[in-house]
UniProtKB/TrEMBL annotation:
Any Pfam family matching the protein: TPR_8
Cdc23 domain boundaries: 18-121, 210-373
Chain positions covered by the region annotation Disordered: 160-207
Chain intervals with Basic residues compositional bias: 198-207
Record key words, sorted: Cell cycle, Cell division, Mitosis, Repeat, TPR repeat, Ubl conjugation pathway
Biased composition (Polar residues): 173-190
A biological process from GO: protein ubiquitination
Alphabetical list of InterPro entries matching this protein: APC8, TPR-like_helical_dom_sf, TPR_rpt
Lineage of producing organism: Eukaryota, Metazoa, Ecdysozoa, Arthropoda, Hexapoda
GO CC annotation terms, alphabetical: anaphase-promoting complex
Name the UniProt record assigns to this protein: Cell division cycle protein 23
Biased composition (Acidic residues): 160-172
TPR repeats: 434-467, 468-501, 502-535
Organism, scientific name: Aphis craccivora (Cowpea aphid)
Length: 702
């Protein structure tokens, strides 16, 4: 892992270049009112405050570097119009901002113009929604598509339009010269022969020239009409994005192309394309934006929402590394995607390497600690996650990002006091943030006040319709209220936003399990298992659905996979039912088939295990069944399982290092038989002997 990402770590070891890039990108994001990106970059810049060089505008000593940005305004009028438009933008008066910045050629003013028009439609869509579960599509689709076409023409088709206009001008000039030549020739013919009757006056141009002129005119109109159809657009976007900068024929053309394209307008174009499900074009445009300005974190996050699987991520990484630059922001994107795909060990490894191989200042970066907390949350390492979240809160007491995940952990741990303290804390900072509303919803849910909990989750969804966590928690509450229809819609809304959310898949499986549709539940539990292959809850639920569908082999394989997470004997009890139903069946053929199937399921469920390890697991199952039937006073059946456990090791070659395992199993078998003899002789349910208690501890030490 370290060898793969080694080229990235050199930037974190000496973060001088990181600081220089951040200062430039920070001012670009701030001037365009991109608040989330500004927040991310400024947080990192404060972390690097003690890293030289120190950028100042007046001090010219050797310890400082004079840092001046390229002037963005060519005249005073553009400067004043920009600040007036920005004032209206900050006041959220988007129509006025778009009108003021309409006729400016400055890149910042142009971005404010198009961004204001987009946000005006976005707010209209939010405020005009009467039903919370309606599809989140633009209300005025015609105006939306007009704005999108303007952005596509400006960012994607600009070079082609110029070439088309030049070719049209050349063709018109050529036609004009041809017509002048023909007219001169016919005027000479008219002077020589003026004998044509006036009633039969014909064209002065030859027939072949007239046909050629007519055909070129028709073709020109046809090309002009069909140039902007949707199919051509998709082909053009894909073809332009596929061209790497290394394949450019001339360096001057490359420089002019990069200067012309605005990465922030490209990002806005991709956001709008994503809203109408043109995801492939959005990915291509986002890659172009990142290649121009790799420090814009908003483009990386938007790209992360479009990656569907690991194969797509690998292909995307190859495209981003075509220039072999290995930008440091790309490594943060890779780690972020690993967390999204629940590959938390790789993400934690990357963040650990940044802290170990990078500069020590990154220890104080709140974003990095928050990512550690999210990774431990995904691994269900509750204690580590809570400690990491508290570390972030100590670094920045007013940073409430991702604290809704901390409330989820407190809800799982059933810690009402801590959850109440957290809810009061976040409500004192900002009561109307979406994270605060989710924390309050979890608090009321833990108090079993599901009506208030639903109210707060609905508020969070209205503030941000793309909040996957709020939609999922809303679905959980509807399950508690026995409202299956609303829960299904909530989970499906979450999957529309993020198809990788395993909680939504698992919730849908639970709903269909409640309404007794096991085949539907099996479909959703399978998707949840694919997203979380190491989560025993998914395996147990999937095994139960296989059992209801009479697919015994798949069910046992799932139970064996989850056997290592069995802390209270629940999974062993499920396996006991199979042994009771088929292993002790009177039909000899059924018993043989079950034994063969049991061995296969055990090898599939527990891969890369030796024969001794498999026998050890089977021994624990037999011992558990022996204790189970002994407690039910089925002493003969308990004795049969104890003898089966002893016979299991007769045909196994025991090495010197494995003799201790065999002796321990034999000791527990003898203790079980002794316990059965004591209980059978007394005819009463006596308390467990010390040997039996020791055997139970041995059972769950998988």
């Amino acid at each position: 892992m370290t060898n793969i990402y080694f080229p990235y770590y050199k930037f974190f070891k000496d973060p001088l270049l990181i600081k220089a890039e951040i200062i430039y990108a920070l001012q670009e994001s701030r001037d365009r009112c991109l608040h989330h990106s500004t927040k991310f970059l400024s947080e990192l810049l404060i972390t690097l405050k003690n890293i030289p060089p120190y950028f100042e505008f007046e001090n010219e000593n050797n310890e400082f570097i004079r840092f001046e940005l390229e002037p963005a305004f060519t005249n005073l009028e553009d400067y004043l119009l920009y600040f007036k438009a920005r004032a209206y933008f900050d006041l959220e008066d988007y129509p006025s901002c778009a009108h003021i910045a309409k006729h400016t050629n400055n890149s910042k003013s142009m971005f404010l113009h198009y961004m204001a028009r987009y946000l005006s439609m976005h707010n209209e869509c939010i405020y005009e929604r009467t039903n919370l579960f309606d599809s989140f599509k633009p209300i005025n689709m015609r105006a939306y598509m007009e704005l999108l076409d303007e952005l596509l023409i400006l960012n994607v088709y600009g070079n082609e339009d110029d070439s088309d206009e030049e070719s049209e001008e050349d063709s018109q000039a050529q036609e004009t010269s041809d017509i002048d030549t023909v007219n001169q020739k016919h005027s000479m013919l008219q002077q020589e022969d003026d004998s044509t009757p006036k009633g039969r006056r014909c064209s002065r141009r030859p027939r072949n020239l007239r046909i050629e002129k007519a055909s070129t005119t028709i073709l020109g109109k046809k090309n002009k009409i069909t140039k902007r159809n949707n199919t051509t657009k998709k082909v053009k976007v894909t073809a332009l994005a596929a061209q790497s900068d290394n394949n450019m024929s001339a360096g001057d053309h490359k420089e002019s192309r990069i200067k012309r394209e605005d990465p922030y307008l490209l990002w806005l174009t991709a956001v709008m394309l994503k809203r109408i499900d043109r995801c492939d074009e959005a990915i291509d445009i986002l890659v172009r934006a990142i290649q121009i300005q790799p420090c814009y974190w908003g483009a990386w996050i938007e790209l992360a929402t479009l990656v569907k699987d690991l194969h797509m991520l690998d292909a995307l990484n190859l495209r981003l590394n075509e220039s072999k630059e290995y930008h440091w922001m790309h490594l943060l994107f890779i780690a972020h995607m690993y967390i999204e795909f629940q590959i938390t060990d790789r993400a934690i490894s990357i963040y650990d390497d940044i802290l170990k191989q990078g500069n020590s200042v990154f220890q104080n970066w709140p974003y990095l600690q928050a990512q550690f907390a999210i990774a431990h949350h995904n691994k269900r390492e509750i204690s580590h996650a809570i400690v990491a979240f508290k570390t972030v809160m100590e670094m920045d007491p007013f940073r409430i990002d991702n604290l809704d995940l901390l409330s989820n952990l407190m809800y799982v741990c059933t810690s009402p006091d801590e959850l109440v303290v957290l809810s009061k804390y976040v409500a004192s900072i900002d009561r109307y943030r979406q994270e605060t509303l989710c924390v309050l919803g979890n608090m009321y849910s833990l108090k079993c006040d599901h009506v208030k909990s639903v109210l707060y989750f609905k508020k969070a969804v209205r503030i941000n319709p793309f909040n996957v966590t709020a939609w999922t928690l809303l679905g959980h509450e509807y399950i508690e209220m026995k409202n299956s229809y609303a829960a299904i819609i909530s989970y499906r809304q979450a999957l529309k936003i993020n198809i990788r959310d395993y909680r939504a898949w698992y919730g849908l499986g639970q709903i269909y399990e409640l309404v007794k549709l096991p085949n539907y539940a099996l479909f959703y539990f399978t998707h949840a298992r694919d997203l979380r292959p190491r989560d025993y809850r998914m395996l147990v639920s999937l095994g139960e659905m296989f059992e209801r569908s009479d697919r015994i082999f798949e069910s046992m394989a799932c139970f064996y996979k989850s056997l290592f997470y069995d802390t209270d004997g629940t999974i062993m009890l499920k396996l006991a039912k199979f042994y009771d139903r088929y292993g002790d069946c009177g039909n000899e053929l059924t018993r043989e088939n079950f034994n063969v199937m049991n061995r296969r399921a055990l090898k599939i469920g527990i891969k890369n295990r030796t024969t001794t390890e498999l026998n050890l697991i089977l021994s624990k199952i037999y011992l558990y069944l022996g204790h189970y039937y002994m407690d039910l006073h089925y002493y003969e059946r308990a004795i049969s399982f104890a003898e089966r456990c002893r016979d299991l090791w007769k045909d196994t070659e025991i090495n010197t290092g494995q003799s201790s395992i065999y002796n321990e199993v034999l000791e527990h078998v003898n203790a079980l038989l002794a316990e059965i003899e004591i209980r059978g002789g007394s005819d009463s349910s006596l308390a467990s002997t010390p040997g039996a208690i020791k055997a139970r501890r041995f059972l769950f030490g998988l």
